[in-house]
Amino acid sequence: IIFSPHEVNFIQGLVFYIERAYRTPDYGMFERGTKYNNNECELNASSIGMAKAALESMNGFNLYGDDGCSWSVVYVDIDAHNRNRTTLETLLPRESSSKNTSVSLLATIGFPAFAVHDSGIVNKTINKCLRRLKGNYGFKRFLRDGANHILEDKAKQFYEASEVKNFEGVENEYPIFYCFMLINSVFSNNLEDAKKYYESIFRLLKNTSKGTVLPYYYYVPSEAIEFERSNPGSQEKLPSPEIGKNSSHLWTQAVWFISQLLADKVLLIQELDPIRRYLQPSERPRQSKRYSTFKGFYSDLTVHICCIAESVRLQQMLANYGIQSQTPHQIEPIEIWPPSELVKVYKHLGLNTKLKLT
């Protein structure tokens, strides 16, 4: 809900901020940094993908709606968007330098971001997640993940060197990512997979005094850790502690509700994704974006080059070598401006002295 130009400038500033996601290390979706949890950031494909999807969705959007004008439109730099795209596609199917893969990629290449539409990259990324992370009770977040683990020292914020080795093969499994797979199966019209994940979720539900809930995660009890480590998938896992406290993990319940609404056809994919991000860019509905700086779809481009001579004398010299050109006077009313003038214009985007935004 935007009421003032100050808020417009603030949103534009946020766009400038996330445009640099391709070169900004962060702690990732799970806020652990590298998989070693040693307070170090790294470039994460899932973060870059989310930023790319946000830029595509925001580009040309008028924050004042139909009554807005040019200064209430959000502008996105096409070069920054392209850098995010190329960096993302280079990283995939890896999540980062330390993580061979991560389940956070499911939310990047599928619902809600739909940041990648190259079927080869998408299939390779999903298959890697399934091969490395899928279990009987959900998905591991990433290999050697120690979050919420019974072997994790809760008194320490960060791990010692090589401490993640303790969690290898006995990581917690999170059912919420079954829900993401169910949602993505519905979007891709893969009814067989949708049915499989629907049934997998159903058997993981738990009844409490407040109703049926989906546990946050399932863990290996301490007495079964060595058996699980020697024979992966052989031991029964227990639901996370909040179930015994008649509580629930809200994010898990929210995604579960959405997945069930889609599977039961109470909710349509067009209602869940009104801007049709699940479609190829060229297939999405074309909206009238008067002030949009670049198109939201790809097409085959033909580059045209026109030679402009600074003077008639230079034009004559080029003509001696068979090079056709025009002078600025001949192309009027079109004006040619140097790149420095464009830089001056862009300096005013998001500028707000009251909020000290530059």
TrEMBL record:
It comes from the Eukaryota. Pathway: Glycan biosynthesis; glycogen metabolism. One of its GO terms (molecular function) is calmodulin binding. Pfam families: Glyco_hydro_15. GO terms for biological process: glycogen metabolic process. Residues 8-283 form the GH15-like domain. Keywords: Calmodulin-binding, Carbohydrate metabolism, Cell membrane, Glycogen metabolism, Lipoprotein, Membrane, Prenylation. Belongs to the phosphorylase b kinase regulatory chain family. This is Phosphorylase b kinase regulatory subunit.
